[in-house]
Amino acid sequence: MKVAVFTNLYKSYSSKHLLSTIKKLRNKSIDVFLDEKSIENMGKKKYSSFSKYIESFSKLDKSFDFVICIGGDGTILRATSFIKNLSIPVIGINTGRLGFLAKIKAIKIDEAINAIINKNYEISERTLVTVLSTIKNGKTKKLGHALNEISITRKNTTSLITIETKLNDNYLNTYWADGLIIATPTGSTGYSLSCGGPIIMPESKNLVITPIAPHNLNARPLVIPDNTKIALKISGRENEFFVSLDSKIIALSNENMISIKKASHTIKMIELEKGNFLKTLRDKLLWGKDKRN
Q1: Which of these, 101, 3, 16, 11, lies nearest to 52 by C-alpha position?
Q2: Which residues are catalytic?
């Protein structure tokens, strides 16, 4: 078995869990691969005796059986940008805080590894969205994919921006707001939720459009089918705006039209328990924890 391990080494406590995970994988005769940056940050001497590694996660290929992410949800989001359309299943070991994606507690690493070896798990297919920008001369550029959300926000100004929005070439609305979020079901528990958006079950075939602090107070989040093509035209006092694809931020000029659609591939998340998402909601959002209940 061949496993790639991805972690956030900017946090000191991830180092301990990384070393523990590698040792446990090697004790099970599993080949472990780290990215070169992790090797450099942690010191090659520590791992050279029991770990192979690849130069960069851009060199992942379909020969890998799993990707294990040690950190929080942000670590998984960064890892998916390297996995792309390789269909390598991902499991998250949570050394962060909330953790809707990285759900396995660090103290249960052994249990998770045994489940992987014994194939005692389910796969949750997670929708991705892809973003294109088109300028006036018709030239189109692919900006990338996002697992959680695409957000359009103002740049270098406190003034609101206007976002003309079309769905399948039909005019929807022009939002006058700080920005706009297009979230997947996976991302519905993130930025969109904090802006008043609904929680969507991971297996739902939907996206949600959530305005950020809209001036027109009757502008509400809208749930749409995930096969809808979304077109955005942005204007404002500044000549540029920000597009965020999960943790990746790009500055674009107002001449760019933004197109958003469902990606042709998905990310495969490993689930160790049936109904795990419902349990995660209860645990992370403290549902039913009110002492008055």
Answers
A1: 3
A2: 73
Residue 149, strand partner residues:
183
Any idea which fold 2-121+272-284 has?
Rossmann fold (3.40.50)
Contact 70, 249 (CB under 8 A): no
Query: Right CATH number for 128-264 from 3.40.50.11740, 2.60.120.10, 2.60.200.30, 1.20.1300.10?
Result: 2.60.200.30
For residue 48, give Cα distances in angstroms to 56, 58, 64, 211.
16, 21, 20, 49
Task: Count the Cβ atoms, other than its own, within 10 Å of residue 16.
Answer: 12
CA–chain centroid gap for 277, Å, is: 16
Distance CA 173, CA 163 (A): 8
Give the tens place of pLDDT for each residue, 64-113: 999 998 888 888 888 888 898 999 999 988 886 767 888 888 788 888 88
Domain ranges within the chain, ordered by starting residue:
2-121+272-284, 128-264
Name residue 174's beta-bridge partners: 164
pTM, whole model, 2 decimals?
A: 0.88
Q: Is residue 79 within 8 Å of 71, Cβ to Cβ?
A: no
